[in-house]
Write a structure and sequence with these properties.
With 207 residues, this protein is α+β, with helices and mostly antiparallel strands. The chain has 2 domains: 1-143, E3 ubiquitin-protein ligase SopA (Pectate Lyase C-like); 146-206, no CATH class. The chain is 25% helix and 9% strand. It has helices spanning 3-18, 138-142, 146-156, 158-165, 188-198; strands spanning 128-131, 134-137, 171-175, 182-186. The protein has a two-stranded antiparallel sheet. A hairpin with a 6-residue loop joins strand 3 and strand 4. The longest helix is centred in the first third of the chain and has 16 residues, at 3-18.
Length: 207
C-alpha cells in the first residue's frame, strides 16, 4: 500500500469515526502491507487489520481500541503509549514489539508470539494468557521467572507432560492423599535441560 493510499484510508476512517458511521468508511486494511509506516497518534479504532503486515511500523500513541489484528504481523513495531483496549490480536506476531506504557486491557492475545517484546508499564488488566485452554493472568505471567514460565507451559500441556514422563528421572505422578488427585512432581534441572534440548519450537517464546 502506498503512502497516499494509506493516507486516504485514514482520512475516510477519521470521517467515519467522527460522524458515527454516517459518512466516510471504516478502515479495512486486511492483508495490507503497511510495514514501516508512521502511524504515530493515528486513530484506527475498530479498524480491520486482519493479517496486515505492520512490521517496524511506528504506532506510538496510536488508538486501536476494538481493532481487529487477527494474525497481524507487529514484529518490531513501536506501540509505546498506544491504546489497544479490547483489540483482538489472536495469533498475532508480536515478536520484539515495544508495548511500553501501552493499554492492552481486555485485549485478546490468544496464541500470540511474544518473543522479545517489551511490556514495561503496559496495562494488562483483564488479559488472560491461554495455554491449552488454561487461563493465566497475564500480569502474573509476565512477572514470572524464565524457568517458571517453562514449567507452567509444561504442566499446562498434557501432550508434553506425557512425553516428559516417559523420560526417566524427569518426573512422576504422585497421588495426593488428601484429595485423591494426582500431582506432577518434576526434577526442575533435568526437566529444563530436556525441554531446551527437545521442545525448541514450543519454548522459542522464552529464548
Amino acid at each position: 500500500m502506498t503512502h497516499e493510499q494509506l493516507k486516504q484510508v485514514l482520512e475516510q476512517h477519521k470521517l467515519w469515526l467522527g460522524t458515527l458511521g454516517l459518512k466516510g468508511q471504516c478502515a479495512d486494511l486486511t492483508d495490507s502491507d503497511i510495514s514501516g509506516a508512521d502511524l504515530t497518534d493515528a486513530d484506527l479504532s475498530s479498524a480491520n487489520l486482519t493479517r496486515a503486515d505492520l512490521t517496524d511500523a511506528n504506532l506510538t500513541s496510536a488508538k486501536l481500541t476494538g481493532a481487529i489484528l487477527i494474525q497481524a504481523n507487529l514484529s518490531r513495531a513501536k506501540l509505546e503509549d498506544a491504546n489497544l483496549e479490547g483489540a483482538k490480536l489472536i495469533n498475532a506476531n508480536l515478536e520484539r514489539a515495544n508495548f511500553a506504557g501501552c493499554n492492552l486491557s481486555n485485549a485478546d492475545l490468544t496464541k500470540c508470539k511474544f518473543m522479545g517484546c517489551k511490556m514495561d508499564g503496559a496495562n494488562l488488566t483483564g488479559v488472560p494468557l491461554i495455554i491449552d485452554d488454561s487461563f493465566i493472568d497475564m500480569r502474573f505471567y509476565m512477572e514470572m521467572s524464565h524457568i517458571d514460565k517453562m514449567l507452567l507451559l509444561l504442566v499446562s500441556s498434557p501432550q508434553i507432560v506425557g512425553k516428559c514422563l516417559e523420560v526417566d528421572g524427569l518426573g512422576s505422578l504422585v497421588e495426593n492423599g488428601s484429595t485423591g488427585d494426582y500431582e506432577l512432581q518434576i526434577n526442575h534441572d533435568r526437566t529444563i535441560k530436556h525441554l531446551r534440548d527437545t521442545y525448541t519450537e514450543e519454548f522459542k517464546i522464552y529464548d
